[in-house]
Write a structure and sequence with these properties.
This protein has twelve helices and 13 strands. The chain is α/β, with parallel strands linked by helices. About 50% of the residues are buried.
Length: about 400
């Protein structure tokens, strides 16, 4: 099979990404003929003019790249042979994030099987998604008794499970409920698919990722390269807000975001925005604060009806697609993520990373070099809060069972 137009597809994640010929998947081929109009055909035709920039960081572009990578030249018009080869599990699939996230993952041509788990109401979600004419086979799993089967032989586990934020609620308020949920789910992951990539979405990420790490350590299966706190939404927001403020073409904008995933621990490095753009001190202050408080902006706008579910699903799907591309052999995958890190004196830190088949291949140290005075002060200021959140997660994971 030839990878059609592979050299023209651009990987997502950061400005370090370059146009590259993507390696052909060696996985089992799942034949799936789409009827016209198809999602992939529409995506390629409608987005071709928009997705030709050299430094895209959009989920859509990543998905288009994967579609083009997987397409085989065929004598049948619009007939696609998809190299769908990866099994993904979404834990918390019936929730406000889980449902749109599962839909976006269902659209990926790299997914052969999509497992949806929740404690209730997941059968209907699976039935609905199973009608979408994309390659992946959808299965539903309800309750703890079916969790092990859900996780068997899974390549990527995505955990959006937990309660959402409500007006007046901080991420820390979510801790006692969501910490227990994450602990239980990661224990099951450790027992059933210890080699899977684990994507933690459940807030507060600054604490739930350390909880997951401690659980995996106790089980003897901790691989720091395969545990990711999903902070992609901070990057998505930073890119969007900067593009709007500076009237830039959104697809060209890339702003690295470091630190953590709550309040002042979120630090957009506006001085490293690509393409290069200048900001006044006032603009820097306002943009930084807006990016840090963007989740609250949505919670308040929904007036008690929910939190940032749709944008979070979009960002999480982008990170899933990046992970799948890395697993499939794409050697040019970069994202920001909250990971086990030696970049600072903190044990976990969000920064730009390179992802490969075995997980984190490199942390991009250069992002922390040459910071402005404002960014350096903000970096030092966030450390105390981030340290406390990490320690809170570690303490929770290690407290004796009642």
């Amino acid at each position: 099979m030839a990878a059609t137009s592979a050299a023209s597809s651009i990987s997502i994640g950061s400005t370090l990404s370059r146009a590259t010929s993507l390696p052909q998947s060696r996985a089992q081929v799942v034949n799936f003929n789409y009827s016209l109009p198809t999602f992939t055909t529409a995506l390629r035709s409608s987005s071709s003019s928009l997705l030709s920039g050299p430094d895209s960081s959009s989920f859509t572009k990543s998905l288009r790249g994967s579609v083009m990578k997987s397409q085989k030249t065929d004598t049948k018009p619009y007939g696609l042979n998809i190299n769908a080869s990866y099994k993904v599990a979404v834990l918390g699939a019936a929730g406000g994030i889980g449902q749109p996230l599962s839909l976006l993952i269902k659209m990926s041509p790299l997914v052969s099987t999509l497992h949806l788990y929740d404690i209730a109401n997941v059968k209907g979600v699976a039935a609905d998604l199973s009608h979408c004419n994309t390659p992946s086979h959808v299965r539903d799993f309800t309750g703890p008794a079916e969790l092990a089967d859900c996780l068997k032989d899974v390549n990527v586990v995505v955990i959006p499970a937990g309660v959402p934020r409500k007006p007046g609620m901080t991420r820390d308020d979510l801790f006692n409920i969501n910490a227990g949920i994450v602990k239980t789910l990661v224990e099951a992951v450790a027992d059933n698919c210890p080699n899977a990539f684990i994507h933690i979405i459940s807030n507060p990420v600054n604490s739930t990722v350390p909880i997951a790490a401690e659980v995996l350590k106790k089980k003897g299966v901790y691989d720091p390269k395969k545990l990711f706190g999903v902070t992609t939404l901070d990057v998505v927001r930073a890119n969007t807000f900067v593009a709007q403020k500076k009237n830039l073409k959104l697809i060209d904008v890339d702003v690295p975001v470091i630190g953590g995933h709550a309040g002042i621990t979120i630090l957009p490095l506006l001085s490293k925005t690509k393409p290069s753009v200048s900001f006044t001190d006032e603009e820097i202050e306002k943009l930084t604060v807006r990016i840090q408080n963007a989740g609250t902006e949505v919670v308040d706008a929904k007036a008690g009806a929910g939190s940032a579910t749709l944008s979070m699903a979009y960002a999480a799907a982008r990170f899933v697609e990046s992970s799948l591309r890395a697993l499939d052999g794409d050697g040019d995958v970069y994202e920001c993520s909250f990971v086990d890190s030696t970049l600072t004196d903190l044990p976990f830190f969000a920064s730009r990373i390179k992802i490969g088949r075995n997980g984190v291949e490199a942390v991009i140290e250069s992002d922390l070099q040459g910071l402005t005075e404002y960014e350096q002060k903000a970096l030092e200021a966030l450390k105390a809060e981030l340290k406390a959140s990490i320690e809170k997660g570690v303490a929770f994971a290690n407290k004796p069972a009642n």
